[in-house]
Amino acid sequence: MDEQRFSLESDSKVDAGKKPVRLLVVDDNPNNLLITSKLSQYLGYDAETTNNGVDALSLLKDKPFDIVLMDVRMAPMNGIEAAQKIRSGEAGDHNAKAYIIAVTAHALQGDKEKCLSSGMDDYLSKPLTLDRLQDSLNRARSRLSLD
């Protein structure tokens, strides 16, 4: 892990030519929260973090975010419920169209469809890889016309 941490800190892929993106990472597992935010930073994103759906909605009400990386299984509010509330405008009209990416260990048949039908835009199964995260964030940037 120390070698990977050194690599992530010393060899960042920040692209100064891209528009800044407001990114929120939501996960109740502190290790997953750290890994996802560090991978996002390595890819050039300045991520804010929180550890549950309730706090995510509170943060989203206060400021706009372009992309939300949302764990699915959390308490007291899971990612599915949080995504539905975001889409309904409960996180502010400015976030109702945020690109929501499910990040979950749920990889059974039907899990992806359940996430997408709740209003999430994309689905990543854990463990995350840098390439899959980058591909998903690139899809988000393209959809939001942020490139």
List the helices and strands and how they pair.
Elements: H1 2-10, E1 22-26, H2 30-42, E2 46-50, H3 53-62, E3 67-71, H4 79-87, E4 99-104, H5 111-117, E5 122-125, H6 130-143
Parallel strand pairs: 1-2, 1-3, 3-4, 4-5
Helix pairs in contact: 3-4
Summarize it:
A five-stranded parallel sheet has the order 2-1-3-4-5, sandwiched between helices. The chain is globular. Helix content is 42%, strand content 17%.
Would you give an account of this structure?
The protein has 147 residues and is of the alpha/beta class. The chain has a single domain (18-143), classed as Response regulator (Rossmann fold), CATH 3.40.50. Helices cover 42% and strands 17% of the residues. The protein is built from six helices and five strands, in the order H-E-H-E-H-E-H-E-H-E-H. Strands 2-1-3-4-5 form a five-stranded parallel sheet, with helices on both faces. Helix 4 links the parallel strand 3 (67-71) and strand 4 (99-104). Helix 3 (53-62) runs parallel beside helix 4 (79-87). The chain is globular, with a radius of gyration of 14 Å. The model is unreliable at 1-12 (pLDDT under 50). This is Response regulator. One of its GO terms (biological process) is phosphorelay signal transduction system. The modification 4-aspartylphosphate is found at residue 71. Residues 22-141 form the Response regulatory domain. InterPro entries: CheY-like_superfamily, Sig_transdc_resp-reg_receiver.
